[in-house]
Amino acid sequence: MIDEGMFDASMGDGARHRATIDVMHGHVSVRKFTDEPVGDELLETLLEAGTRASTSSNMQSYTIISISEAELKSKVAKLCADQAQIHEAGAFLAFCADLHRLSLCTERFEVDSSALGLEEALMLAVVDTALVMQNVAVAAESIGLGVCMIGAMRNHPAEICEALGLPKHVVAVAGMCIGWPAEQNEPKPRLPLDAIWHREGYRSDVELQELIDAYDAIMSVYHESQGRHPRDPRWSAVMSRRMDGISARTELGDVLRTQGFRV
Ligand SMILES: Cc1cc2nc3c(=O)[nH]c(=O)nc-3n(C[C@H](O)[C@H](O)[C@H](O)COP(=O)(O)O)c2cc1C
Questions:
Q1: In terms of pTM, does the model score above 0.90?
Q2: What are the chain's domains?
Q3: Whose CA is nearest to atom 6 of ligand 1?
């Protein structure tokens, strides 16, 4: 937890550090938005802040597609499990891992570009994309906007490629709804820090099981307060049930191959 004493004058502009960390602690995914628009000027501010993220070798291997035209938005929303927040959000963005731009660079210099299809290239592009996504989210939340990321953008990857006209070496990683919150939950508790912070090497399973038990107790109370997961509100039980969601996305491997990745 943040200790007030950490932010004294000796740290320089302590207030500024505090404001950023407070925004991060206040994060909660927002799924109900007002109908107030998120204009292009505001979007530009958020995306410019987003692009300040570090990227592998400055490759900047991502592309952000804003989707506002009614017919396209409705089509894409349907492909993303027709989640209500996509329709409601003032802005909806598709974040894509993108190595196409680099292929144009290699073409220009007549360099063999086959490395762009390697797992390593896909991994670095997905990491770049995730970092810019999180930067955009923090920028949005810093001015009071709410966000909800949409992994369901990988439910029908071939149709998404087609709807957005994605060339080879480009694939949608996730969507993001951005809008002015109409409603928002309390921040969701996280795993105890020890469960994710291992010192000098990986923790034993015995320790991890104890930490998971502790979190299960906290999340059971949280889920009960939200009226969610009445069957078994423990985090470990909810996550075990989520395996279905992962195994349902069987099409992704084929689409990655069609897009030029050798996975
Ligand atoms: C890559 C990614 C994809 C997600 N996809 C969805 C989604 O399709 N629909 C949704 O309602 N929430 C989605 N979420 C939000 C998560 O459910 C949420 O971040 C998680 O439950 C933690 O809750 P919090 O963000 O409110 O702290 C996604 C989050 C991430 C990072």
A1: yes
A2: 28-185 (3.40.109.10), 187-257 (no CATH)
A3: 150
